[in-house]
Design brief:
Length: 328
């Protein structure tokens, strides 16, 4: 049991369902030792509210652990958390959880970081610019480019652009960006998922992939030349395909992953196929990071109605990835 990978799980927004779903990890059958980052008192209070009888103890690297016990790396809340009610004063706490887990990752104490959901809005309301874990952890680890990919329902959908206003998407999409995104996606599918020759289908940006230039020029000017260049390097990348019919079985059976051009081109399909079971993965980082496929669900905090299946899937995926890939 002691040879199992140790996984850092950040419990996320304290007013949301993050603490609730982390409590389920105590009883879970998981392929690793789980260390939850959060406020111990918050976790104890939430367990009491949910009627869960769980032993919550501080994490010690050389300490004994066993199923039924939740090991916690403690960080204090700034102010007491109320289920369902965001408080701007706890934004720094949420980021501190990520920072502490990241330090442990850097010190090789943990094999992977798995994150419960945070609330982007309240962090920004606190005066800290924050667009998501993906961008935050990229900056934290001084990684110039990362790729968001969600996996679920037999699909892997990566995004060329992530958290930005829709009106900025077309201007952000350059040949340089697309080349970097596809190169990272290809490499991480090989190294972190063990796919020797990954097959990637690329969506167009415009309706009907631009209709030969009559409905937009990004396909002809940017996407096709990049795909051609990467094909010359031996990569099995094809497209651009009209996004409306790309997610059909006859297309997907030829693919290991799909690259969508923007957040809501790819993620609704993935979440329709597997919401609650999917996993969000950040590719390109110098460590393994996975997350749940859902948000803070403030309406469900402390009600017992939140499912933790996506968190379990995120941990299982992180452990599988750690078996394929070791950091330098
Ligand atoms: N990994 C992350 O940190 C992450 C992911 C997605 C969204 N978010 C953030 O979460 C906040 C709220 O986002 P939202 O309202 O768009 O999405 P949400 O996923 O929180 O909620 C959407 C709907 O799904 C339900 N739901 C969500 N998770 C559930 C679960 N585990 N079990 C049962 N039902 C569940 C909610 O009750 C709600 O009805 C936003 O700030 C968003 O940016 C964070
Ligand atoms: N785009 C993600 C989703 O819709 O599930 C979510 O916002 C989380 O993103 P980060 O992992 O960057 O926080």
């Amino acid at each position: 049991m002691n040879n199992q990978p140790v996984i850092a799980v950040t419990s996320g927004e304290p007013a949301g369902i993050g603490p609730d779903i982390c409590l389920d990890l105590a009883a879970g059958d998981l392929p690793g030792r789980i260390v939850v980052f959060g406020d111990m008192q918050l976790l104890q209070q939430r367990a009491a509210l949910l009627g869960k009888n769980i032993t919550i103890q501080p994490y010690r690297p050389d300490g004994k652990y066993a199923p039924g016990i939740l090991e916690v790396c403690h960080t204090s809340l700034q102010v007491p958390a109320q289920a369902g009610i965001l408080n701007v004063h706890n934004a720094a706490y949420v980021l501190q959880l990520l920072d502490s887990a990241h330090i442990g990752i850097q010190q090789s104490e943990f094999a992977a970081m798995v994150t419960a959901p945070v609330h982007k809005g309240i962090i920004n309301d606190s005066g800290i610019q924050f667009s998501g874990h993906t961008e935050y952890l990229a900056a934290k680890s001084a990684t110039s480019r990362v790729v968001m990919m969600l996996a679920g329902g037999g699909l892997k959908v990566a995004l060329a652009t992530t958290h930005l206003p829709l009106r900025n998407v077309a201007d952000t999409l350059t040949a340089e960006l697309l080349t970097e995104i596809l190169t990272i996606l290809h490499l991480d599918l090989q190294q972190k998922f063990g796919l020797l020759q990954p097959r990637i289908l690329v969506a167009g940006l415009n309706p009907h992939a631009g209709e030969g230039g009559h409905l937009g020029h990004e396909e002809n000017n940017i996407i096709m030349p990049v795909i051609g260049l990467l094909q010359q390097q031996g990569m099995k990348i094809t497209g651009p395909f009209p996004a409306d019919t790309l997610f059909q079985p006859f297309m997907l059976e030829q693919a290991d992953a799909v690259l969508a051009m923007y957040h809501d081109q790819g993620l609704p399909v993935l979440k329709y196929a597997s919401f609650g079971e999917g996993v969000n993965i950040t590719l390109g980082l110098p460590f393994i990071r996975t997350s749940v496929d859902h948000g803070t669900a403030l309406d469900l905090a402390a009600t017992g109605k939140a499912t933790s299946s996506s968190l379990f899937a995120a941990i299982n995926t992180a452990v599988e990835m750690s078996q394929h890939w070791k950091p330098n």
